[in-house]
C-alpha cells in the first residue's frame, strides 16, 4: 500500500501541473480531495491495514493529503497571477487618467465655521452635548410647561425609555450650567430633531447654533450689541437688522432678530434667530439640578440666543430646496469651493 500511495501522489501532482485552466484544476481537486475523492477512499481502506502498520500508513496518507493540498493552492495562485497579468497588459500608462470630480467643504459646515470664528473672537467657548437627551434637560429645566406642543409625540422623537432626541441645542446650555458655576459664555453648534414632514423648507434633522452668556449686570443692550456685531461680521456691513418682541418660555423678555440683505430673499426681512434675557425660573431650575445656589437670580443675569443654520444657508446660497443640503451630490457641493 505504501508504494501505491507514492505512485498515487506522483500521478496526482502530474495531473495538477497538466491542468490548463482553473476549471480543469478544480476537476482534479474534486477527483483527489473531494468528499468522494480518492484520498477519502484511501482513508476508508485504512480499516484493512494491519493494526501495527496503521500509524505509519496513516502518517503517510496525511503527508500525501497535505502535499496535494499545497500543490493545488500553488497552481491556483499561478492561474490567478496569470489572470491579473493578462488584465493589465493592454493598459497604456501614457494615456491621461479619468478626471476626478472634487467636492468641497459642505456649505453648512462653511457657514457654521464662520459663525464660530466670530463668536470665538467675542470670547465664547465651544460647548457640546449628546443628541439623546432627558426630558428634564430638554423641557423642564427650560421652563417649558407640561402642555406645551413641543412635548407632544407628534412633534418630538421619544425613545422607549422616556429619553428623546433633543429638539434644540439649548440642552447644552443647561448641561453647561449644571457642570460649571458662573460666569459662563458658550456657544453650542449641533444637530436638533423634530417630527417635521420633509419638504422644500423642512427637515426632521437640522442644525442649530445656540449661545449663552451668564454674568453680573448683563442687560438686553449687551445682547443687542453682541448680535449686531455677529451679524455684520458674518454677513457684511450692508446687512440691516431689527428686533421684534416674541415669546419663549426660557427667556423674558424674548425677542426675534430679523435681517435684510440686498439681493438675498428678494430683499425681504428674514427671521434669523430667537433670543432674550434668561428667565430667572431657568436659573432656579439649574440650582435645583445642581443642589446649590450657584446661579442665584438675584446675583446673576444673562442672555441666550439660538439660530437655525439650514434656512440661513438656503437664503445666502440661493437654494430652492433645503433637501439639497443632505443629498451628498458632488455636483452640488463642487459649487462651494
Shape: elongated
Helix content: 40-55%
Main beta sheet strand tally, sense and closure: 7 strands, mixed
Low-confidence stretches: none
In the CATH scheme, what's the topology name of the largest domain? BirA Bifunctional Protein, domain 2
Strand/helix succession = HHHHHEEHEHEEHEEEHEHH
The N- and C-terminal alpha carbons lie at a distance of 77 Å
What is the CATH superfamily label of the largest domain? Answer: Bira Bifunctional Protein, Domain 2
Describe the structure.
The protein is of the alpha+beta class and 337 residues long. The chain is built from 11 helices and 9 strands. Helices cover 42% and strands 19% of the residues. The protein has a 7-stranded mixed sheet, sandwiched between helices. The chain has a two-stranded antiparallel sheet with strand order 2-3. The chain is elongated, with a radius of gyration of 36 Å.
Which descriptors apply to this entry?
337 residues; 9 strands; alpha+beta; 19% strand; BirA Bifunctional Protein, domain 2; 7-stranded mixed sheet; 2 domains; two-stranded antiparallel ribbon; elongated
